[in-house]
Amino acid sequence: MRSPRERMVVSAALLIRERGAHATAISDVLAHSGAPRGSAYHYFPGGRTQLLCEAVDYAGHHVGAIIAEAQSGLELLDTLVEKYRRQLLDTDFRAGCPVVAVSVESGSEEDRERIDPVTERAAAVFDRWTDLLAQRFIADGVAAADATELAVFATAAIEGAIVLARVRRDVTPLDAVHRQLRNSVLACRIGKESPR
């Protein structure tokens, strides 16, 4: 069973993926998590910024674990895309990626001091995902330089497809990206295996 603190972090990540960071207030997180009213500043003395940073870290760890557990690049793509596909359908296209949500909400100049730590955390999460993807592709026989580019392409393509799917309320963009990424992984592996 999760502690009230852990429930608040998970709730923040879930709310951010649907509403975005700006529209997710601490009062919403308290209501969603069922945590006691006075617990927010007890658990998060850094306030909303700390809570948002930890929600980004949670989302990053969650997806990072899926990437790390995959036995092949193709399994990894299949698992990630299916997870996001289910998430989109189960939430009637309300839920996207909380890391993207905080990344695109840079805010006004007055908010910069509060939001910079959150966007820096998001950048670190994207870097970690890309590194994990590249490692998986290298383990499958893709050349290191190609694996790094393929990892960046996969991250950008999947995240972009999620955004398009939400806007269109249709998983077709995600399915199209899935097919193209599978083809790209196979092409990189075949290119590596074929004689020169």
Q: What string gives the helices and strands in order?
A: HHHHHHHHH
Give the CATH level 1 class.
Mainly Alpha
Largest sheet: none
By CATH, the superfamily comes out as: Tetracycline Repressor, domain 2
The overall strand count is 0
What is the rounded distance between the termini? Answer: 56 Å
Here the CATH topology equals: Tetracycline Repressor, domain 2
- Considering DSSP H and I runs of 4 or more, what fraction of the residues is helical? over 70%
Counting copies of identical and different chains, the oligomeric state is single chain
Shape: elongated
CATH architecture: Orthogonal Bundle
Number of helices: 9
Helix vs. strand class: mainly alpha
Strand content range? under 5%
Verbal overview:
By secondary structure, the chain is mainly α. The protein has one domain: Orthogonal Bundle (Tetracycline Repressor, domain 2), CATH 1.10.357.10. Helix content is 78%, strand content 0%. It contains nine helices and no strands. The protein has helices at 4-19, 26-33, 39-43, 47-69, 73-90, 98-104, 112-139, 144-168, 172-193. The mean pLDDT is 91.
Short description:
The protein has 196 residues and is mostly helical.
Task: Give descriptors for this structure.
196 residues; elongated; single chain; Tetracycline Repressor, domain 2; mainly alpha; 78% helix; 9 helices
